[in-house]
Structures are given as structure tokens and as C-alpha cells.
Amino acid sequence: MIKAKDAVVWINNASHGVLVLPQGERPPEGNGRWSDPIGASYRQWQEMENRERVLLMLETAIDLSMQDFDLGSVLREMARVKEFRALGSESSPMCRALTKALTGKTLDSVTMTFEELLVTYGRN
Length: 124
Known about the structure:
Elements: E1 7-12, E2 17-22, E3 35-39, H1 43-47, H2 50-66, H3 71-78, H4 82-85, H5 87-90, H6 92-103, H7 114-120
Antiparallel strand pairs: 1-2, 1-3
Helix pairs in contact: 2-3, 3-6
């Protein structure tokens, strides 16, 4: 799990790939050009609170999906960030979206917590 303050979101416009890595790590070479539109490399990110970072990640996910990036892939990568993944425990829509992205199943946390759903259905 990556802490939000340490996360860097990398995108590859040619392949529509998204990677979330800890600051200091770079995407593998040879898969086209990667850029880092948001994340720990930027002073603004460092000055933000975690809630602001997560909001910017959500906005970026929406923006990327509108640019034909696969939203499920984007959410899977962003769920590597502890504070972003916690959204699955905080709201029913995010629980459904993240469980679908992480397990391939649309699930609701009626009888289980979000993390229990992920463990039960194969993705923790």
C-alpha cells in the first residue's frame, strides 16, 4: 500500500496505461512515454491534506475516463493508495465501484465491510 503523500500517478497517453508508484520509482521503459500529471513530485501535492489528494485523484480518474482510459484500470491502480482505497469503506458508490474494479464483481457492503468483501471475493 502506498501512502497518498508518497504516491505519483503516471499515465501513458499512447497505451492508455496508468501506474501509481511511490515517489522515486519510475514506470518500466519501453512501453512508450510516461508522464506524471499529479503526485508527490509536485510541491502543490506535498502541501495538500490527504482528503485533497484523494479528491484530485478522483477528479483525475474521471478526466482520464473521459479521455478513453479504462476506468476500471485507473481505479485498480489508484486503489494501491491507502487513503484512496479507504473510499470503499466510506461510501456505497465507491464500495461498488472499487469492488467491481478489484474483483470483477459488483458488490455492496450490506453484510460485510469493504475490506471483507475484497478478501472474500479474492482481492485484498
